[in-house]
Amino acid sequence: MISVETIIPVLKWRTTGHVSELLGLQARRVFERLAVAVPTLTGDTLEGLVGLSDRQWRRLVFAPEFYSDVMAGRGADAIRGHTLAELGVCGDARAIASLLGRNGIASTALGDVTWIQRGDRRLTITAPSAQGIVVDAMSVHLRRPRSGLPRSIQLYDETERDRLCSDISGALQQIYGASPTAGVLVNSVVRTIVVRKDAAQRSVASCSWPGLPGCVGLVNPLGLARSWLVNSLVHEAVHCYLCLTELLGDWYLDEAAMTARTVRSPWSGRPLPFHSFVHACLVWFGLLNYWRLDHSEDSAQYVRQAARGFLRPRDIVSQIRAGDGLRPEIADLVLDVCGMGRTVASEHAECGRQ
After folding, report:
1. What would the DSSP string read from start to end of 107-176?
2. By the 8 A CB rule, do 79 and 37 touch?
3. CA terminus-to-terminus distance, the chain
4. Quick one: CA dihedral 237, 238, 241, 246, positive or negative?
5. Distance between CA atoms of residues 332 and 309, nearest Å
6. Residue 325 confidence (pLDDT)
7. Mean pLDDT of 277-291
8. Are 239 and 194 in contact (CB under 8 A)?
9. Backbone angles phi, psi at 125, to 5 degrees
10. Of 23-32, 49-58, 117-126, 196-205, which range is least confident?
């Protein structure tokens, strides 16, 4: 179990502490599941896995899609596909041909290389990266709608993809400039940024998923202010970090109760599953502390946004104390964060009145 003393300094952007330990545990969990799946794998898949280099293993183990497929027990076909894709990156034409044999399109688990078969022509599209994080605007993973991402998608063209990558790079540089610790955390826990254009509506959104640790989704991000990108990347990186900390120990006494009960967020006003509400309290505390370090033009509005919920502490305290599915250690963590958040938010409000 991660202690309060370990998590709070991370959310105050004083240390990245145990992130390497978290990533090591993630890798161990993947290998444990792979070991169970070995008897179901065909000879060519086993041969491919054995032949992967250390770098390819790292790409696979920390790719959100690979983690999701292995941990969900999607089986030999999924593992084989990801293995062939890694071999394809190294120029194995037979591996690529085998991948494309079914649907005519395939991607690596990281979404950084996509192959498309069009008649006799084979296109290879390499995704750009921002500060080492894949910016995925083309892979097959965009065609697997997940909760929070629109189904009515269009793809960004090459010029738009390059502009998005430049915008995201600028946002990451701003994060590093405001807090090197925040920059390191984002770069450590975020592996892919999936960007999608919603053809049906103009709303913008960011999202992440417990089952895809390291994957951040951005909907309609092209042309938005850099501050929105900064806020979204820090927000979702903290979610990713919290999902990893849950791997180190059980946060919940009753997981079903954590999703069955809904709570209204004092920040957004939206109803959230109790699990998401617990995350929200910690994420907004991280954002409040980040924007106090970032002195860019829009920082004041983001401080006010993050402070809003902490100025209504009763709403948080009553819900956490009523949360039967939450372990006492985690309940104490959230209550401590609520108290510290209220102090910071009150100081900010007082300064605003002077």
Report:
1. E-TTSSEEEEEETTEEEEEEPPEETTEEEESSSGGGGS--TTS-SSEE---HHHHHHHHHHHHHHHHHHH
2. yes
3. 43
4. negative
5. 18
6. 82
7. 96
8. no
9. -115, 120
10. 196-205
How many other C-beta atoms can be found within 10 angstroms of the C-beta atom of residue 217?
Answer: 25
Which residue intervals of 254-327 are DSSP H helices? Answer: 255-260, 274-293, 299-308, 313-321
67-97: per-residue pLDDT in tens? 999 988 888 999 999 999 999 998 899 999 9
Token representation of residue 283: 């994420």
The sign one gets for the Cα dihedral 245, 192, 211, 317 is: positive
36, burial (CB in 10 Å: exposed 0-12, middle 13-18, buried 19+): exposed
pLDDT for 278 beyond 90 = yes
**Beta 271-273 vs 262-264: how paired, if at all?**
antiparallel
Distance between CA 227 and CA 343 in Å, rounded? 25
CB 327 within 8 Å of CB 2: no
Q: Provide the β-strand partners of residue 124.
A: 115
**Angstrom distance (rounded) from CA 184 to CA 266:** 29
Could you tell me how many residues make up the chain? Answer: 354
- Alpha-carbon span 156 to 49, nearest angstrom: 33
52 Cβ neighbours under 8 A, 6+ residues apart: 60, 83, 86, 87
Residues forming beta bridges with residue 113, ordered by sequence position: 126
Confidence of residue 101 (pLDDT cuts 50, 70, 90): confident
Cα–Cα nearest to 179, from 333, 3, 34, 16:
16
Are 109 and 68 in contact, with CB atoms under 8 Å apart?
Answer: no
> Which of the four pLDDT bands, split at 50, 70 and 90, describes residue 354?
very low
Most confident of 33-37, 44-48, 290-294: 290-294
